[in-house]
Every structure is written in C-alpha cells, then in structure tokens.
Amino acid sequence: MVYEFSRTRFMTYQELYRSLTPMYEEGEAKAVVRLLLEDGFRLSFADIACGKLASLGKAETERLEDYMGRLRLGEPVQYVLGEAGFAGRMFLVSRDVLIPRPETAELCRLLTDRYNLPYCALQPPEPLRVLDVGTGSGCIAVTLALDLWNSEVSAWDISGDVLLVARENARRFDARVNLELHDVLQLSPDEVQAAAYDIIVSNPPYIRRQERKDMERRVLDFEPHQALFVPDEEPLLFYHAIARMACHSLKKDGLLAFEINPLFATELQHWLEQEGWQKVEIHLDTYGKQRFILANHHDR
Fold first, then answer.
1. CB 132 within 8 A of CB 144
2. Nearest in space to 140 (alpha carbons), one of 185, 170, 115, 174
3. Whole-model pTM above 0.85?
4. pLDDT by residue (tens digit) across 132-161?
5. Does domain 98-297 bear CATH number 3.40.50.150?
6. Residue pair 238/261 in contact by the 8 Å Cβ criterion
7. Residues of CATH 3.40.50.150 domain(s) within the chain?
8. Is the Cβ–Cβ distance between 15 and 5 less than 8 Å?
9. Which of 5, 82, 100, 138 is most buried, most CB within 10 Å of its CB?
C-alpha cells in the first residue's frame, strides 16, 4: 500500500505510523514515529495524544512529509534526524558512521564500573590513557572522556570523514579527545607507541558477509559496510590486529576491551589466552549474549 499525504491537511499519528508498517512491525513503527516527533519536532506523547500535530505550520508539515518519505524508503530514523541517543547523550550521526547501539554503551559502563572507584589501586595519580580504535561517531571515546575519571582519551579511525563526525561530537559535549587518522591493519612501526596506554578499547567490524542474509534491509542499505563487515574467512581479522598492536602499546597490566560477535566469543577467548593475555573474561550484554571480552596485558 502506498501512502500519500495532502499538504492541505495535517497528518494524524495513526496515519504516520501505519504508513511505516510495510517496513516495520506496528509496535516498532509507533516507536519510530514517536522518536521522530519527539526529537525532530519537540512533541511529547501527551502533545501527540492531544492533537498538537494539527498545529504544525506549513514549513514543519513539509519537513515532516520529507522525513516520513525517507523513513518509508527504509532510512533509519537516526539518520533522518541526524542524531542518535547513546549513554544518556544525543550524538550527531551521518551515513559515514554506524548508528551507536545500546550494547556499546554497556561496554563503556563496564570500563567506568571497573575504574571509577574511590581510592582505586587501578587508578594511578596520573591520567588513565585510553585509546579507542575505530571510533566512528566517537561515541565510545567521548563517553569515556566525560565519564571515566581522570582519563586522557585518543581515538583512531581509517576515514577522515568519520573523524569529522567524531570531532563534532567531541565539540558538542566539550570532551577532550585526541583524534588521529590510522589504519590498524596497516600500521607502521612509527605509529605503534610502546607502553602508551592503560586501556585500549574497540568495537571493530565483526559481521561476516555471509550473515548479510539475516540482516535488516535498512542496515544493509544505509549503514557503512566498511564499519560492519569482515571477510567470511577472517572473522577475527581486526581483533588479531588490535591485540597484536596492544601487546606493544598497553602498559603492564593494561586492559584490552572488545565488543565482539557472539558467534566467535569462545574462539577469540582461546586465541587471546594462547597469545599470553591474562584474565580473559567474556561478559554478557543485557540480552544474555556473549558481547564483550576484557583481557589484561602482562610483560612476558
């Protein structure tokens, strides 16, 4: 069914969400439209229930029609709005970066819970030096710069366009993040600093291309594939590269923290242990999936 809206009358909430049901389940369609109206037009659910959609002016109505057209084509609402919620803040996003996920915010909480302790022996008098590899929107780096006590955060990405988005997010929240252009798969010896960091964290690409068939079209059609996929034959490509770099760049007893593909959690755990990493721990996300790995670096 094709939905068309007249510019001479207002659109009801029911019309809006029902026009998305070919793309979304009804409950999700309602949530998407509510997010659009709340963040894009500052209309609360109470406003919507009271019929305040009818009070939108011509310019706002045309903008709403444009946004709805993009949603009906499958574009994620976060890209339509240009921002996404993460760890209690609204981050700028563009189609150059992945939309931040709630699971990734859980990784940030694992780190802050681990280190933000009064008189913690893990927290030295000097700042904790943190590196976020593959920063994307900068959601991890900015969150840790703001929420991890006494920290000094750097963030790498392979793309200059991506780093521009991360820079704008750092500026938006007045977070001090040192942004650098690096390809972790092609690092030169000069780019690997010895014993430079207390924490190296990453949410690298980890979805095998063969898993595409199970993914939603709005992810495949709109989110950057470079940040999503790895070759089928090398599912741990980025983890191996980052862990090997981290062997040189982490201080003694420094922490390596990954978001992971649950399908390869045990394999990655065993590989890290074989490589000499200590206290290799798998952590579950809110949905009970093996989503994170933490490991400690010891000089060998």
1. yes
2. 170
3. yes
4. 999 999 999 999 999 999 999 999 999 999
5. yes
6. no
7. 98-297
8. yes
9. 138
